[in-house]
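Please decode residue identities from the backbone states below.
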């Protein structure tokens, strides 16, 4: 289990290194996740120990939101001052996300029939 956690953290470290060295506007952990995904895709499967570590991290995911909550509480006064722009940004981004998702679903569903397809080769 320690080896699996080390592998995950090495992917994050590689992502941080790439982000810092290249100046990409992507966070290091995101680049690290892409690296981990690529490695697992090449292996064509998730090793049992990495899956177990991932499950453990996911089961305790709420703990990882504590620093974000503390940051929000520290900047509560600033959020109060800028409440309107924050609310507008949240509403607009939500509506754009819904619209883009609907468009993607519509484009992906083109060419499909609504009902079940008739079995091929049977004359009725």
């Amino acid at each position: 289990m320690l080896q699996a956690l080390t592998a995950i953290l090495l992917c994050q470290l590689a992502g941080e290194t790439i982000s810092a060295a290249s100046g990409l506007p992507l966070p290091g952990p995101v680049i690290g996740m892409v690296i981990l995904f690529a490695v697992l895709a090449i292996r064509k499967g998730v090793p049992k120990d990495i899956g177990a570590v991932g499950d453990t991290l996911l089961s305790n995911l709420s703990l990882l939101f504590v620093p974000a909550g503390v940051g929000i509480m520290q900047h509560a006064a600033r959020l109060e001052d800028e409440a309107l722009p924050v609310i507008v940004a949240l509403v607009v981004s939500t509506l754009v996300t819904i619209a883009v998702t609907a468009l993607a679903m519509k484009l992906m569903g083109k060419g499909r029939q609504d009902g079940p397809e008739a079995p091929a080769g049977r004359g009725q």
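Observation: The chain has six helices and no strands.
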